[in-house]
Amino acid sequence: MFHLVLAACLAADPDACAPRLLPAGEAATRQDCEAGGAAIAAEWLAAHPDLIAQASAAIRCVDTAALPALTVQEIAPGIFVHQGATEQLSPANRGRIANLSFVIGDSVAVIDAGTSRAEAEALYAAIRQRTDKPVSHLILTHMHPDHIMGAELFAEAGASITADARLPEAVARRAPIWLQSIPEQIGAGEFAGTRIAAVDETVADTGTIRLGGRDLRLSAAPRAHSGNDLTVFDVQTGTLFAGDLIFQGLTPSLDGSVNAWLDWLARPPEPAPARIVPGHGPVGDDWATATAPTRAYLTALRDAARDALDRGIPLSRAVTRITAQMQPIAANWRDFDATTARNAAAAYAELEWE
Known about the structure:
With 354 residues, the chain is an alpha+beta fold. Helices cover 34% and strands 27% of the residues.
């Protein structure tokens, strides 16, 4: 199989260029790929006016094996996971910090799309290096940009995008800020061509995606890590994709409710999963073990925030106090101080109304 690659540059900075993979140009032969390449590239550029084609050698057709691809591990039959860097966004890691997965049945379902189109292209290349089956679904586990910003690539590949029913509105409110801030955090070239993609199907409670002989069960969580968390359970292998409801290594970020998040973690799913894919960090095989670090962190956060409130300490001083009280567990987490300071403010505001 051959893939159309366009050398695209930022219109505002022609020296900032990056190859963009265009799924619409995918073909069985190089000749077929090249025959339609110019028209497909022109149409794509028209839809991305912030980009221009590089002056020379703008398009080429690349064999599947030659595409730069994310490293993935097959954790169960037909289930592949890329483990992101256990860090916050930076130019060094190119924003590739979230765990991204795909499930192969009669077609392919992708779970989370990464921080940029470039990362999504590398995930798509990893898929194509393992199967030529159509990519029929992209499931977004929640709204945060390290999980959703690559979605347009999969929409172009023919995938229907599914998310929690609360996600579209939450993303719409934040998108203008993300589109400005993320290129500054990971690099403009890495982010080039990235756009917010529309959600096609939403889940308010539960749902099922069928990939021929295997079913993926979708479950919306109450407001917890965020206000729009969605888990995915592969029935055939017993694999639970928990998104950022479970963290390993990278400090959990609270964008929802600390109480509701702890309540969710306190209720093991039924049936018990055989393996758990967190939003960040390594795959686990035991619910209690996999969730213990997140539960310990959130419990410490809740208790320190309640203590500050009980003592009548105002928010202006409570954030520093809460972060200091939680220092005994700081060594277990990356980016502890900055993330915990934000979490402290959120937990204090929530618990103030208990």
